User: What shape does this take?
Amino acid sequence: MLETKINGVNFSSCLMNASGARCETYDELIELGKSKSSAIVSKSSTLEFRNGNEFPRYKKLPFGSINSMGIPNLGYKKYIEFASELKKNGKPYIVSVSGLSESDNIKIIKEINSISDIDFIELNLSCPNIIGKPQVGYDFIQTKILLEKTFEFNKKKLGVKLPPYFDFVHFEEVAKILNQFPLSFVTCINSIGNGLFVDIESESVVIKPKGGFGGIGGKYVKPTALANVRKFFELLNKNIAIIGVGGIETGIDVFEFLLCGASAVQIGTTFVEEGAKCFERIENELREILKQKNYKTIDDVIGKLKLI
Ligand code: SIN
Assistant: This one.
């Protein structure tokens, strides 16, 4: 009932973890393998190990979260090394790549191309937390050049993780670029970059890096995430699947993303706060809604949002 398929690869359900949350270490990835997440998505990887930004760098907020992690990760070689063990779970393994430069990205993607136990690459064009580095996804020329260089050699199934867009003109410009490449999927949205939260008790910011500015996730971003899924569903070639992410806490949230056009969803803040049991809970809630509404599969729901 909840199964989905992305570029010919079967997923036992449409729910998986979002890169970033609890997917950095070997133990965390193994834990994901044992969970009801239908795939294992790694933390975004860079050429070398990174400690990330200064602490505190994550804070739960009343309706979501703010983070400025700065891509702490083990370096891409480790995520390659873990692949054969992680594949024993039989789930798709998706390695997120977020090189600090175009040449880093190309080097990492080239190497992953020869690793059969990695099913997909999710190329992250949207981390807002690298000090001094703008989000690639907001630079349309750089995005196009990176994808051109990547698809000169890339044979691996590959998708991109996008930042949120807010203007129809920008959606159209980005979609025009993405439609030129054999992408397996787009993941939208990454956190809304450079938000600010004020604690009135201490009269201060709540995270240390970047003077308190950080990526906003959770319920705050759900309408923006739904809008991005919907717009890309309208504009992208139908062979590019859409993975929705942003503010999913319940089965009802997933149902909304499916209606807007997502073929799968990723869970970030809720997974951080609730742990791996969230996948089973949300899966059960989604199954219940589909039953109540007499839908047999999620394919009957995807993209069926009605206009009034
Ligand atoms: C981070 O590590 O700063 C978050 C990753 C991301 O937003 O892409």
Summary: The pocket of succinic acid is lined by residues 20, 44, 69-71, 124, 126-127, 129, 190-191, 215 (CB under 6 Å). DSSP finds ten helices and 16 strands in the chain. The radius of gyration is 18 Å. The mean pLDDT is 98.
